[in-house]
Specification:
Blueprint: H1 3-9, H2 23-34, E1 45-50, H3 53-71, H4 76-83, H5 86-90, E2 97-104, H6 109-116, H7 121-127, H8 131-149, E3 153-157, H9 164-171, E4 177-186, H10 201-204
Antiparallel strand pairs: 1-2, 2-4, 3-4
């Protein structure tokens, strides 16, 4: 698929057929993440492809329980609103593949320099966006485009990270590993899924000459 066609036609998909991507397809998708740019070429990432249904069920159950824990002391209106997200956070249980995107802890050189120079954490946060998290974003974008190029679809999920500690235990991750995203992957259930509207180019672009 030509690159611009791939970018322009990609859609977020939450419902998949029973088709299970081959190991070669999974490796091709994750290999694309490996070639993404990363801050100071640290490449402090790891990608775990989960096909095991029991593991996916345990992860979804942990997220569902976390939602119940979070909403326990909320007022009814807020609780209902939060719980409406539960299904969108656990549907990956029915996806053929779930790629758990993991950031491994790495020091920030410039963050340390600014701290030593006397800047506050708030000032550093403004001056230094999380470069490692941005690197993860680039890797994930590569994967969702590669999945689309292979005739597959995906959904980039952040809400499940609410249960990051529980998922880390299920996957036996180390203390210095941080879950940033779950990426659901599969063949789309319909050939022509709806695509949400995007803002027009003039709404998001400015050219200064």
């Amino acid at each position: 698929m030509e690159i611009f066609e791939c970018i322009d036609t990609r859609k977020t998909i939450r419902k998949y057929t029973d088709y299970v991507p081959t190991e070669d397809e999974v490796k091709r998708i994750i290999n694309s993440a490996r070639f993404a740019p990363s801050a100071i070429n640290m490449q402090n990432w790891r990608f775990i492809a989960v096909l095991n249904q029991d593991i996916k069920h345990k992860m979804a159950e942990a997220i569902s329980n976390k939602y119940d824990e979070i909403t326990k002391n909320l007022d009814e209106a807020t609780k209902a609103q939060v719980l409406s997200y539960k299904g969108h956070s656990t549907f990956f249980e029915n996806a053929p593949v779930v790629i758990v995107c993991v950031e491994t802890k790495a020091p920030s050189f410039m963050g340390g320099v600014l701290e030593q120079a006397g800047y506050s954490k708030e000032e550093i946060s403004r001056m230094r966006p999380d470069s490692y998290l941005l690197s993860m974003g680039g890797a994930i974008e590569n994967m969702i485009l590669s999945a689309h190029a292979l005739g597959l679809s995906s959904c980039w999920m952040v809400a499940p990270v609410l249960a990051c500690d529980e998922i880390k235990n299920i996957l036996k991750l180390s203390d210095n590993e941080k879950i940033t995203t779950l990426l659901a992957v599969g063949k789309p259930y319909t050939d022509n899924p709806n695509k949400p509207p995007k803002k027009e180019l003039d709404e998001v672009m400015e050219i200064i000459r």
